[in-house]
Write a sequence for this structure.
């Protein structure tokens, strides 16, 4: 039997596994989480009692359906589920998971995304989280990150997490969006055309924020007990708070795709380097990518992409999949929606003029903007050289939270287009691993 490995048990990975099982295969599904569900349908630990309606809001039905499909496949032995397992390297048809080695003939990577961040002076302080972390604390632990929370950034997660915190009774002090109302109106039309119901739901959520919500803001700095920002008119504002949640959309989790040999291309829509794949997710011989780890299109699209990637794998194994045209049509509509959303809530770019040299850029290693400028001046404006000279992205998160902003900063500092400074090459381990996991190698 062909050995298919699926990395990621979010919406994309689950739908991919489901298709493979239906075609008579028994995939191995590896995921870091204790329970399948991924980011959006993350499940709290066993024994927690918050109902799906509270956890997932309008998406509760979808969460239940996905959890049920996956749990049934695991219970019947149709899927070999490896929870709490992190793939840290991929080489020559072998995935390295801790000290384990998983040989495979085909690989489907459904590794999702993480928050994308713009460095703000003071963001290294205690009490500053990503939007995703604030949501995970709420979803997985029923905990609010603070009593007076400022949420800042842009993108759908900003409004979503703010309304989820309010619905849970948490204290939200302000919701600060860097996207202007004009930008939102510019992209809003395309969003409504592509997915009217989702757009209407987003607007209804926004309305619930009322006067807490501010568009077209600029963040100046995060102090110990307040956020300093400018409103759309440029007026200086100060909002006292005890916690901050930051996030500007998402960045695709592509390190494993890089190690597995995928090619990358610059995406103007998402202002980042993304893996190259065909419309079904083929990214190389025996390699398939799906979900937010390929294109940041949201949970519904991730399900479609997972099914398409599995169909591509089955087609390459000689099995026909008659529903592919329908899935491709659905995927195209999701692409249109996401492109319009990226226009409505654009990546603001790193405000070089708002960041003094003393501002921290790489929080893991405490590297400052000034050190990065010096590294770029010394070694030239190339991402990997600046990393090796400046240690940016060498910390625990391996650049997940600073590399895109660092590349943007290097480019602005050198007067170049962001893609001109190149992208940080993926290198193992893609996740921190205990040394003894590497001893065999
Ligand atoms: C923190 C966060 C919160 C979000 N909340 C929402 C929300 O409430 N509503 C919404 O519509 N969208 C939300 N999104 C976007 C939504 O997550 C995605 O659109 C959707 O979950 C994508 O599905 P996916 O299957 O592609 O990836 P994911 O759901 O992200 O699943 C990917 C899985 O792969 C695992 N993984 C990644 N790398 C490895 C590795 N090396 N080894 C093993 N496992 C690995 C991850 O742990 C994760 O479980 C959120 C995104 C993030 C980052």
């Amino acid at each position: 039997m062909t050995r298919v490995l699926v990395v990621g048990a979010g919406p994309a990975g689950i739908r991919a596994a489901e298709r493979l099982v239906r075609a008579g295969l028994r995939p191995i599904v590896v995921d870091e989480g204790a329970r399948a569900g991924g980011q959006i349908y993350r499940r709290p630990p066993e024994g927690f009692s918050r109902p799906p309606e509270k956890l997932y809001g309008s998406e509760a039905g979808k969460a239940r359906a996905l959890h049920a499909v996956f749990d049934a496949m695991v219970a019947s032995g149709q899927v070999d589920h490896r929870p709490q397992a992190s793939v840290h390297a991929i080489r020559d048809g072998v995935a390295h998971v801790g000290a384990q080695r998983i040989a495979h003939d085909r690989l489907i990577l459904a590794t999702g995304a993480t928050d994308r961040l713009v460095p703000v002076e003071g963001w290294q302080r205690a009490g500053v989280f990503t939007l995703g972390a604030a949501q995970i604390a709420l979803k997985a632990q029923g905990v609010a990150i603070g009593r007076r929370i400022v949420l800042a950034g842009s993108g759908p997660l900003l409004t979503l997490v703010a309304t989820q915190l309010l619905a849970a009774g948490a204290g939200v002090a302000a919701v600060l969006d860097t996207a202007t109302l004009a930008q939102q109106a510019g992209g809003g039309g395309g969003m409504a055309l592509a997915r009217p119901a989702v757009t209407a739901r987003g607007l209804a959520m926004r309305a619930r924020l009322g006067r807490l919500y501010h568009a077209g803001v600029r963040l100046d700095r995060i102090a110990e007990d307040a956020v300093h920002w400018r409103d759309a008119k440029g007026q200086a504002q100060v909002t006292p708070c005890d916690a901050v949640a930051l996030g500007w959309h998402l960045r695709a989790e592509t390190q494993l795709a890089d190690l597995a040999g995928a090619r990358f291309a610059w995406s103007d829509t998402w202002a980042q380097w993304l893996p190259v794949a065909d419309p079904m997710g083929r990214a190389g011989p025996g390699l398939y990518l799906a979900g937010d780890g390929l294109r940041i299109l949201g949970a519904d699209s991730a399900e479609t992409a997972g099914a398409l990637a599995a169909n591509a794998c089955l087609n390459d194994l000689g099995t026909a999949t008659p529903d592919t045209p329908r899935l491709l049509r659905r995927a195209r509509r999701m692409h249109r929606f996401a492109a319009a959303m990226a226009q409505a809530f654009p990546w603001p770019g790193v405000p070089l003029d708002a960041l003094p040299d003393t501002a921290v850029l790489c929080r893991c290693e405490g590297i400052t903007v000034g050190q990065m400028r010096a590294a770029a001046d010394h070694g030239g404006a190339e991402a990997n050289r600046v990393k090796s000279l400046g240690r940016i992205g060498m910390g625990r998160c391996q650049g997940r939270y600073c590399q895109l902003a660092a590349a943007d900063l290097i480019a602005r500092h050198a007067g170049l287009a962001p893609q001109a400074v190149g992208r940080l090459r993926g290198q193992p381990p893609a996740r921190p691993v205990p040394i003894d996991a590497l001893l065999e190698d």
